[in-house]
Specification:
The chain is built from 13 helices and no strands. The protein has 326 residues and is mostly helical. It folds into two domains: 5-137; 145-325, Four Helix Bundle (Hemerythrin (Met), subunit A).
Amino acid sequence: MKIGYRTVKTAIGTPIAIIIAQYLGLSNFTSAGILTILTIKPSRKQSVISAWHRLLACIVASVFAFVFFEFVGYHPVVLAIMLIFFIPVTVLLKVTPGIATSSVIILNLYSAGDIPIQFLLEQFVLIFVGIGTGLLVNLYMPGYDRKLKQIQKKLEDNFQLILTEIALYIRDKNTVWNGKELRESDELLHIATDLVEIDKENHLLRSEHTYYDYFYMRQKQLDLLRKMLPLVTKLPNQDEISLKIANFFDGLAESVHPGNTAIVFLEQLKELREDFNKEDLPTTREEFETRANLFRLLHEIENYLIIKKRYKESDVSLLKRAKAVK
């Protein structure tokens, strides 16, 4: 069983909040631990937003509790009426996630049976101790760069295998492959996307992420690979153009990496199109359908390469520029 960072931080933060509240002589000191548990979130950004929601909701709840309990009475019916008014206010202020936290303070005040100003101030201190401890503990967040690099490597291995299998099928009509890399790549992309979002939220002043565009690009390419598969199955056996396309896919497989050499393959694709246009016109319906599928396949390959080309500046262009400077 794996214990996550959030569990460890909760286990550390909760007793710290209670100890501080006890040291300050606050009544209902265990409530500080509850507030800390509710404040700790998967990312720094979520934790800060959560803290703001809970702080504002607790302050509003304290005011409502003081007015209703002191001026109307300490009775379950009064508690119910107060909640009928209080909850719509939290919705209006857009702090509904703080309802659970503020309920702790409301019940503390209700169970006291009397709310002197000193006790009310104690509740405010309790709120700051609980939420503040949660925020401080949540400042530490694990980096996800290593995990994202591992996913990137595995994803590129899968893409290489998919492209190689396509080439094998075109060349030999090899049907042994079960396509598990497609499913696995989908799962990896979902995991990577979630990690990127969390990592972005851990950097409060950064809106962009190094890996965001990369995984977005791979997702688009994976969708295109799926579109290519039915078209590949309709290519003729041992046809000269088909064999050239198989070699082209082999080349693509060897060049799957984080860099960008798409411009080289777009030039090769242009030559393939020219070869394709030199072929005799189809004379039968079967030849016509084959030609149409081949044309669609080349179009999907072009889209696949254009997506990579737009991802970042071409490594080929950078190399030429570097040589020019020398």
